[in-house]
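Chain A, query sequence.
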Amino acid sequence: MRVRVLFSVALLSFLFFMGIFRSFAIECSGECASIQQEINNLSRDLQSSVNATTNLEQQVAQLDKRIKGIQATITKAKQQADYLARSIEERETRLAKQYLILKQRVRQQYKRSLTFSPLYVLLSSTTASNFTKQLMYWQNLQQQDQQLIHAVGGEILTLEKDKKDLESEQARLAGLQKQLDSQVAFFKKEIAGAKKYQQELSGKIAALSARQQAILSEKSGTFQTTVGDVPLADDFNASPAYNPGFSPAFAAFSFGAPHFNGLSQYGALGRAKEGQSAETILKAYYGDVEVKKDYDRNARICVGTSKNNCQSMDMETYAKRIYEVPGVWGDQGGMEALKAQAVAARSYALADMARRGYICATESCQVYKSSNKGGKWEEAVNATAGWVLIKNGKPLWAKYASTAGGYIDAYTDTASSGHTTPSFWDTKNGRDGWTNQAFEKIAGSPWFYKAWYKTRGGDTCGRSHPWLNQEEMADILNAWRVLQQGGDTRISPLGGCWGGSPYSMNELRDKASGMGGAFTSVNSVSIEYSNSGYTAKVKFNTNQGEVNIDGLEFKKVFNIRAPGRISLKSGLFNLERR
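Chain A, predicted structure.
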């Protein structure tokens, strides 16, 4: 009875929280004003359901032991009943034979009782001894018949009673088994329902928490872009020289964006200005590859949205219509960079054709327009006509982007040749010449060292610069402190442009206070770099003493919490204080 009461309480709690969820779902059937509030409610419902289900499972675990004991008893009783049934069947067979004998003995006894006369026995006996023997024989025979009659009769009565008891026991056991099966099925159904409900809630929470992943994706610069038709516009406010008007002030500067594979377009320009040829530039970025200079110029490139919806043209016509770098570079000492870009563009297109049968016309693949670009670009295309990067007999999937920040990551061409490109510091003097001798810096890339606070479309979320005051910097460290303890979906950027219901600075500070201590001031910051081209560690001097954070971990929390559109685009970054 106690187990049933506990189970009923747990079940009622579970159903109660299910009711809360259904009510909430109806209330928020449209676009909720606060996605975060929905996450919190869903999380609360999930935890409550888990707690209720845990009680159910604990009760079932206890019941399971009792159920197994009951089932064992039922099984033993059934075995005993089966044994009794077999015994009854054997006894009935035996009694049937004894009954025939009994009938004969009863008949004979009856006859003897009618014909027996002690006087007749006396007269027929020759001696007194003979008379005594015959009389005792008759009495023994009479006694045996009576004993047999009583024994068989008693066994028949016992057999009938056992049969009735067996029928009663089998009926009782069948009822117990049915009741037990019903209760076990009920428990399993309720727990299965609770688990299904929890899975549904988990799915909703996971989908809503994906908002943080979307923030990370957008802020981290996971987009494809190149220099394009014109140089990237410089933004003085995103430079270290900008004065935000307050102190202390902190800003996070990224080296390069958005990806760091293959040819750096500004790096190629810097190398060209330093006198390197197109072939030297290509081998620097792509490693041990062949620059094949007599590839079939009539090889077909199909540009469009799918294999069945594209325009076919020869390789050289396609190359003349690529708008990936400014043609004016040819007049600024960068003609060899244009040539290197033309070869990379042909190679990339041919590899894409082999991979899927067409190539798109946007920056997701390569920027293509329906008319020739002309100028120095067309000169570069004509000067390298038929040049294609080859590895293992196949055109190389030659990736490239605007600015890598001074370090080129290795990548493997899984799309075609299987070739792995080298990783290296893209400078005149390796790692030691990184910040002042990087080829991208020589070329003047505005993305070589930049603090990002705008989207590509120019949205700033109301901020005019990327600098953070001391309270904002401490807030990011509080976010790091809280995230160390596990996921928290209310940690997202302040500023109103991301939606949801992010913690205020005070709320996050209070939350961090209970998790090892809140940060209220940041006095200084320093950086340690890895030889493999990423920020290894960020060190802060704070009211909580020195704090060391892994570089990639800091980048993640910075992009989740930094206000507005402020973000880090690279794993190679620096933090400045002024």
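The longest strand covers residues 522-529. The mean pLDDT is 81.
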